[in-house]
Amino acid sequence: MANEILYAGVADQRTAEALTADYLMLAADRNSLPNHPALHYAGDTAGIGSNTLKVPHTNLLGGDLPQSVADGAAVPNTAWTTGATTVTTGRYAKSYGPSDMARFTDSLGLLAGPTLAQDAFASAQLSLTSSIAGLMGGFSNTVGASGVNLSIANVLAALTLLEVGYQGGIMPGGAMGVIHTVQGGDLRTALATATGGALQWNVPAEQLVLRGTGFRGRYLDVDWFVSGYVPMSGVNDRGGAIFVQGGVVWGDMSVSAEGTEQLAIGGKVLFERDRNAPSGITQFVSANFHGVSEGIDTFGVSIITDA
Known about the structure:
There is one protein chain. By secondary structure, the protein is an alpha+beta fold. It has a domain of 119 residues. The chain contains five helices and 15 strands. Strands 5, 6, 7, 8, 9, 10 and 15 form a seven-stranded mixed sheet that branches. Strands 1, 4, 11, 12, 13 and 14 form a six-stranded mixed sheet that branches. It has a two-stranded antiparallel sheet with strand order 2-3. A hairpin with a 3-residue loop joins strand 12 and strand 13.
């Protein structure tokens, strides 16, 4: 049969390749940490005259015990224990600057304002997650061994140090564990092998909705979360941690929009468009303001294990 119309014969009428109707997300940690009670929110610095919050430490409500005093003797003043944690909010921002040609030929809407605004909100949450995860290896009390996988023995030792440091067991609401994804896998393996498989990471779907996809379950009164933002500790290790309320303190700043080129997303993310007409470039800039600090050092325990 002659004169068939083959694909090669119509190459001049076809593009070399065509975009699909959807897209794949590149690898990145998109698990934001939830509003867990172990994370102490210090407040909002908008309109207070400073970008720094000071959270006082107190020994009230039973921290100092009454002492035995002889009948008729004057009781001496109890030493007033003082301390404070400061949290300074700073700007975290990013900018995408597509050209007119890049935007006008965008068939997927990836460079459209609404899509970039969604990205700005998600990125702001994850920038806070990254800041919190970056503190995990900094507590003075530490368990684990360099080059050795995380084990159940590490968790038990960390809990003992945490209970001693808090001087009263684990706080109501439990502790929060933030460990690297590799450490989470090591703990999952340790649970499965040490218990004959009786304990597994099995998180109900409703818990993932409430706590985010980084939630791996509750074990020994600790809510465990994994994050790829947990930094390296030394050359070959990761520095996760478990902590109770007061171990990690954070604050943020509300934003407001002015004019038609700015948008305040959720009251916390400033998203704006900046047009450079001579260059044919439209910049989409987003910014959020937050700060994270270690609170009371003994309220957290770092877990340093093999990455």
